[in-house]
Design brief:
With 375 residues, the protein is mainly alpha-helical. It has 14 helices and 2 strands, in the order βαααααααααααβααα. The chain crosses the membrane at residues 103-125, 158-178, 190-209, 215-234, 241-260, 266-284, 305-323, 329-349.
């Protein structure tokens, strides 16, 4: 859910953008915010009287939008780590550390804001969406992105995804490194597709069928791996036979998994991967129209919106519970305020927290002589 890496154009021009990925991320981010607004309430409980079917859909199905981020994450990880699908990573621990250093600082800042929002909201209302004051152990587990693994309650909705994104990226790095060791310096273009076939198949046909794995990367690697395969298959330099083989690796295990146990989230992941294969590398012109500029801005701030929307929604819920009439139209206005407030807060958080922290991390990495942090 980070800003999409873009290729720098000629001097003095804005970089071109991956238009489709930006559109998918911008739309998925809105659905995640609306899902949490509908799921956590209490405003949504009053609004259900006005639009019961819409609220039920947002509660039960809008969360499937997270599949967009999983597949896009794999697509961009392949672009960053292994654009041509070759095995090998020169410095796996450093690469994993750079990813952690990119994700964790803004996540921890947002977690602290969420802890404060829980205190404020708890003074205005009593609701099961409010967490108890965090312990030092709980904060430490969040800082290490291990809260789910260690059994701590998440302090913010969506915190699980940040930890899973880090696990998935680390798993991808380790797969590339181990495959590189097996290749022994040889090219072996078939090796990484074979590794990815094994990883995606084991995820879709085993781990993803067992919810006890949902704090671990193997549960989600099927969707993530589909994004990786979509990047490799969309390489215009590949021969048609290689493209067909990669598409078979992408599609056939997924179809088998759906026949074994149909899961709408996996069907959505497959659809997103196929769309990214067909159009994911298409770039917008740097001077795209205003609508695309808005889409790009929403995509650029999507990680910040994802991090900060829960405390914003919690505060607005508490304020409307305490001070506004418990009538559907008033509470619907509160939901709209929470939604728009989340977008505004995400833009502010991106400008004043995520970007400055990213600069600090980049300077630290450069000072240590490492490569810049990949997007």
């Amino acid at each position: 859910m980070n800003a999409v890496a873009a290729r720098q154009g000629s001097a003095g021009t804005a970089p071109a953008q991956f238009g489709l990925i930006n559109l998918l991320k911008a739309g998925a981010a809105q659905l995640i915010v609306l899902h949490h607004l509908a799921f956590y309430g209490p405003m949504s409980g009053h609004v259900s009287a006005l639009a019961p079917e819409l609220m039920a859909w947002l509660t039960d199905h809008a969360r499937i939008a997270v599949q967009v981020f999983l597949v896009a994450g794999g697509f961009l990880a392949a672009k960053s780590l292994s654009p041509s699908g070759r095995p090998g990573v020169a410095a796996p621990l450093n690469t994993i550390w750079r990813r952690y250093a990119k994700l964790a600082p803004p996540f921890l800042a947002a977690t602290l804001l969420a802890a404060g929002a829980n205190v404020v909201a708890g003074a205005w209302m009593t609701h099961d969406s409010i967490s108890a004051p965090p312990t030092f152990g709980q904060l430490g587990a969040h800082a290490l992105l291990l809260h789910g693994v260690l059994g701590y309650e998440a302090l913010s909705a969506g915190a699980w995804y940040v930890a899973i994104d880090f696990q998935l990226y680390a798993a991808m790095v380790l797969m590339l490194w181990l495959a590189g060791r097996l290749a022994g310096g040889g090219q072996r273009p078939w090796l990484m597709p074979a590794v990815m076939l094994a990883a995606v198949s084991s995820s879709l046909l085993h781990f993803n069928l067992d919810s006890s794995w949902d704090n671990w990367a193997p549960y989600f690697f099927g969707s993530y791996g589909l994004g990786v395969l979509a990047w490799w298959a969309s390489d215009a330099r590949r021969k048609p036979g290689a493209v067909a083989l990669l598409l078979a690796v992408l599609v056939l295990p997924t179809l088998a998994a759906l026949v074994l146990d149909f899961r709408i989230r996996i069907a959505v992941a497959l659809a997103v991967a196929c769309v990214l294969f067909a159009f994911g590398r298409a770039r917008l012109a740097a001077d795209a129209g205003r609508a695309w500029q808005a889409v790009n801005a929403l995509a650029r701030t999507s990680y910040s919106v994802f991090l900060i929307h829960f405390p914003v929604c919690l505060i607005v819920n508490a304020a409307f519970t305490r001070y506004a009439p418990a009538e559907p139209y008033w509470q619907a206005a509160g939901m709209l305020i929470a939604w728009s407030g989340s977008l505004a807060a995400g833009a502010v958080f991106h400008r004043w927290v995520e970007v400055p922290l990213g600069r600090v991390v980049t300077l630290a990495v450069q000072h240590l002589g490492a490569r810049p942090v990949p997007a």
